[in-house]
Amino acid sequence: MQTIRAVRHMGRKCKQIARCTGSKKVQEQFCTVGTLTDGFLKQQFLPLFEQSEKLPNSIQTQKEFFNSLAILTGLYGFEIMDVENKPYPYNILLTHSYVQKQLRKSGQDIELTILQGNSGMVKLATNHTYNTGNTLYYIPILPLYRLLQNKKHKQTAELLLSVFAYLYHIAGIPYYRENSSYLFYQYECMEEWLIDDFENDETEESNSTLSEFNQAIYYGDVMLRKIYNLYHLNYFKQRTESYRPRTFFEKDCLTVAEKALALLLEYPDYTIFQNTSNREFEYDDTVIKAEQYISFIADSNGLLYENIARVVNDEFNECSEMEEPTLLQIYDAENQPSNKGLDFEYRLFPLINDLCTLLNNTP
């Protein structure tokens, strides 16, 4: 992450994270929202226990536990260990530990828990989490605009334009020139600050930053009109299949496009925010919303970006929690759990990271 320059505070304060450039460096860790507390089994299955301790009914608990387990293992396709010769509750304890280890082999952050509903019925549940790594998933627009102006890279630029159209129309990533987006407000504040700074003390730096701002606004609107056109989304598959890369950069562009197209075909109605919103924190300004750290942005280089990043970083540092993709699945006859979990998020976020890396290294 590049060194971020100081910027004047502008009334409303802002938070801290690193831009999406493939770097994992962060300046502060934040907690994950949506911690599960309700419905957990009131009694813990411990390695050692006294016979006098009150445990749930042996026969009923085992029946419900292993019925729920059958649904889970049927979805994930792994066999369960033989615990018939183990007494209750150790048979459940050992099984829980074994299944947790199997779930970890998926490469996803999955926590296996035992729940007890209001009726007293025991069920297994998995809490899936995707750690966004305190990263700003800000996708720069201007590198693609510049690529479109180069006739040698027209086909590559159009391929990436289709990727952008997918991320905007289907994945639902906000665009900084739309007034409903978080970054629209940040650019608006930056404009007021730049004009005031320019009028009071015109310098080469203020001239340069103001010039970058004007380009961000003008070309940002140009690119929004292009991305908004569904033509680029409708011809996404055709462009990908007909693309013939010649350089390493073009091969990487094709790889990103193929991954994005695969997500579109496999998850045609999935958005990047479907597992991040939490009603409990809807109006809580101490929580970093997913819509604040995921967005299109003008550029991720230059003085303008450095100033905006500092303002955002300052605001994020004042928050105590952060929205991240989470998913709770309960394994019983009433629910319809899936072995996909957060597969969409585990593929989309790295894809955005790869796309940002490409855009920051355009020829």
Report on this structure.
The chain has 363 residues and is mainly alpha-helical. The protein has twelve helices and nine strands. A three-stranded parallel sheet has the order 1-5-7. Strands 2-8-6 form a three-stranded parallel sheet. Strand 3 and strand 4 (122-129) form a beta hairpin. Helix 5 packs antiparallel against helix 6 (204-228) and helix 9 (248-266) runs antiparallel to helix 12 (343-359).
Shape: elongated
The number of strands is 9
Q: Taking all residues together, what is the mean pLDDT?
A: 84
Q: What would you call the structural class?
A: mainly alpha
Gyration radius, rounded: 25 Å
Order of helices and strands: EEHHEEEHHHHHHHEHEHEEH
Number of helices: 12
Please estimate the helix content. Answer: 40-55%
Largest sheet: 3 strands, parallel
Going across the biggest sheet, name each strand in turn: 1-5-7
Tell me the fraction of residues in β-strands, as a range: 5-15%
Q: Low-confidence stretches at least 5 residues in length (pLDDT < 50)? A: 1-19, 21-53
End-to-end separation in angstroms reads 21 Å
Provide a short characterization of the protein structure.
With 363 residues, this protein is mostly helical.
Question: SSE layout and pairings?
Answer:
Blueprint: E1 18-19, E2 31-32, H1 58-76, H2 90-104, E3 109-116, E4 122-129, E5 135-140, H3 142-148, H4 154-169, H5 182-200, H6 204-228, H7 231-234, H8 236-242, H9 248-266, E6 287-288, H10 290-293, E7 294-297, H11 303-316, E8 321-322, E9 326-331, H12 343-359
Parallel strand pairs: 1-5, 2-8, 5-7, 6-8
Antiparallel strand pairs: 3-4, 4-9
